[in-house]
Amino acid sequence: MSSEARTTLSTRKKATPPSTRPSGTGNHVDTESLQHYQSALQLLQQSKFDKALIAFEKLLGTAPPPLAERCRIYVSACHRELSKTTLEFISVEEQYDYAVSLLNMDYYEEAREQFSHILNKSPQADYALYGLAVLDAITGQIEECLEHLARAIETNPRNRLQARTDSDFQNVQDDPRFTELLYPENP
């Protein structure tokens, strides 16, 4: 190796991990901030979302960028969890519309919860069964998709026609059981 190359390599500064950088760099996480963050995280894990939200928001003003970014994520999670408990629907149709909007925003577990709540109130709600079938197809749960779709079609045969043109079922279109559901042979 030439002496020029050795000089270049030896004069490079080593990267210092964020936790050990001097506080002037803006990325140092002091012990007090870290303790507050851990306390807020513990509140979140205990499902004390209102208290966790306050703690994370308080940290946002003083935390260094990497920690502040995590706090913003947890603030959003707290808001989402708190909004779940305060939702009240005038009708199951309104709740269904909300579930579909969650599905469209890729909040799959939250959408599943809403569809399940609808079915608990109205076990014959074919639209909720159809919604679950779509959700299952999107998330790759083929068996559950076929089961929910079969029940939706049994409850309301018009769901068969809708499923034939629904692009959300593209993951199951090659499955022969799906084809049998949509195009049954007449005896």
Task: Describe what this molecule looks like in 3D.
InterPro entries: TPR-like_helical_dom_sf (IPR011990), TPR_rpt (IPR019734). Residues 1-30 are annotated as: Disordered. This is Tetratricopeptide repeat protein. TPR repeats lie at residues 126-159. There is one protein chain. The protein starts with a helix and ends in a 5-residue tail after the last helix. The chain is 67% helix and 0% strand. By secondary structure, it is an all-alpha fold. The chain has helices at residues 3-10, 31-45, 49-60, 65-86, 92-104, 108-121, 126-138, 142-155, 158-165, 176-182. The radius of gyration is 26 Å and the shape is elongated. It is built from ten helices and no strands. Helix 5 (92-104) runs parallel beside helix 7 and helix 6 runs antiparallel to helix 7.
Summarize this entry quickly.
This protein has 187 residues and is an all-alpha fold. Helices cover 67% and strands 0% of the residues.
Compute the average pLDDT: 83
Largest sheet composition? none
Number of domains: 2
Say which CATH homologous superfamily of the largest domain is assigned.
Answer: Tetratricopeptide repeat domain
CATH C-level class of the largest domain: Mainly Alpha
CATH topology of the largest domain: Serine Threonine Protein Phosphatase 5, Tetratricopeptide repeat
Which word captures the global form?
elongated
Tell me the distance between the termini. Answer: 84 Å
**Strand-and-helix sequence, N→C?**
HHHHHHHHHH
Strand residue content: under 5%
Assign the CATH architecture of the largest domain: Alpha Horseshoe
| Poorly predicted tracts of residues | 1-26
Can you count the helices?
Answer: 10
Number of strand segments: 0
| Helix content class | 55-70%
